[in-house]
Amino acid sequence: MSVRRLASIPGFNIDRVAAAAGNDPQVLRMENLDTDVPPPSAAMEATRAAIGEDEANSWLPFTGRDDLKEAVAAFIQRRGGPRYEGRREVVITCGEGDAMLDALFCLTDPGDEVILSDPTYAGMANRVRLVGAVPTFAPLRVVDGEWRLDLRAMHASVTDRTRVVFINNASFPSGWVASEEEWDVIASICRERNLWLLYWGGFEGVLYDGRTIQHPAALRGMRDRTVIVGSPTLEQRMIAWRIGWVVAPGDLVNDVSRVHIYNGLVPSGFNQVGTRVALELEDDGLAAANAEWQRRRDETLRQLDGLPTVKPLHPAARAEGGRHPDAWLGRCCCRTARSLRLQQRARRAAEAARRAGPACPGHRSGARLNETVETARLIQ
Fold first, then answer.
1. Do the Cβ atoms of 314 and 330 come closer than 8 Å?
2. 114-117: long-range contacts, CB 8 A cutoff, minimum separation 24
3. In DSSP terms, which residues pair with 91 in a beta bridge?
4. Which of 251, 187, 196 is nearest to 225 (CA)?
5. Beta-carbon neighbour count of residue 120 at 10 Å?
6. DSSP result, 62-96
7. What is d(CA 1, CA 7) in angstroms, rounded to the nearest whole number?
8. 165: Cβ–Cβ under 8 A, 6 or more apart, which residues?
9. Alpha-carbon span 60 to 48, nearest angstrom
10. Strand (E) or helix (H) holding 165
11. What is the chain's pLDDT, residue by residue, as a tens digit (380 residues)?
């Protein structure tokens, strides 16, 4: 029998949907965040070179290499964030998931409330539940074809039990990118109600249509009440490195260090070396990657325009950032059972259309996206 802690946490069933899809070329794969845009070559070379070095094959230091901590602090500052003391205010973790959990353990007690956007990443909401806190939600609404935070509802979400506002930006899975006004409101709520901002900047630089990074920790009074979670997973495309970090201002870093030592212990020394190199590059390939991902977003929307699709839970909104296909389509993920049923129905419909031939209105009924515009084509 499961413990009460897990009562409101559903299973992670993406693997079931992926297994059902198999290698069928008629299935549009949208279940994960893999990409064929490669990591920086210098980071790969540095990681390979570190294998075999005694210094990189060590339990120490438990909270991460000092050179990587300094690189994280410099990376944030180059993007318009405040200055942090890398060796004193950064903890290196075993990926962004560990980092989120470490931070939530240090910012909340059981029963405290944490505000998230709706929709948001299930991994954020369920980590709130894992630490015994209570997620509450401020809705995103579609305004003029873009997601916008309902600022009135955001204010109304705050109670005497609220301790944290937990935001990822660009948001996954919606593709919402907070505007200057929205960040100002979030920051003012944190200042006025003495709340922490837990900011996951995983897609911070994956922005489309000329948008630029706005770092919330740089806003008035926010440096010392913002905890930053980051990683090279998404922007630098270093998925398998499983390196992350928590930037915790002042003495809070001592708590984060203590939690991480018992939660994740030490991340790979080899991969820390590669991550440091990636963060120090003048050109890590992100600008080119963004241009390609934006091109794919636009091509996906173009090819699906006019085709029958699953009715969205919200009106379609154009993603402003992030690189998840659900965000590109403005759709929200459906439950596992429904996903499996939809796969079966789509296969039957596609087979019937093929038998009927080109004259059938549903003949162009499938889509294939192999993560390049050149091969993103309708199956005839």
1. yes
2. 114/162, 114/163, 114/164, 114/165, 114/166, 114/198, 115/154, 115/157, 115/158, 115/162, 115/164, 115/165, 115/166, 116/166, 116/167, 117/149, 117/167, 117/171, 117/174, 117/176
3. 246
4. 196
5. 21
6. TT--HHHHHHHHHHHHHTTPPP--HHHHEEEESSH
7. 10
8. 114, 115, 186, 189, 190, 195, 196, 197, 198
9. 19
10. strand 162-168
11. 588 888 888 877 777 777 777 777 766 666 668 888 999 999 999 999 999 999 999 999 999 999 999 999 999 999 999 999 999 999 999 999 999 999 999 999 999 999 999 999 999 999 999 999 999 999 999 998 889 999 999 999 999 999 999 999 999 888 999 999 999 999 999 999 999 999 999 999 999 999 999 999 999 999 999 999 999 999 999 999 999 999 999 999 999 999 999 998 889 999 999 999 999 999 999 999 999 999 988 887 787 777 655 444 444 677 898 876 555 555 444 455 555 555 555 555 555 555 555 444 443 333 333 444 444 443 33
CATH code of 41-280, in short, is: 3.40.640.10
Q: How far is CA 26 from the centre of its chain?
A: 27
Using left for φ > 0, alpha for ψ between -120 and 50, and beta otherwise, residue 31 falls in alpha
- Given the structure tokens 């003012």, which residue do they identify? 188
pTM of the model: 0.87
Helix/strand/coil for 147: strand
Closest-CA residue to 89 (of 295, 269, 249): 249
Residue 332 structure tokens = 């929200």
Write out the two tokens for 158: 């705050």
Q: Where are the domains of the chain?
A: 4-39+286-379, 41-280
Q: What is the chain's length?
A: 380
Amino acid making up residue 133: A
Strand partners, 134: 113
Buried b (16+ CB within 10 A) or exposed e, 132-141: ebbbbbbebe
| Residue given tokens 């964030």 in the structure block | 81
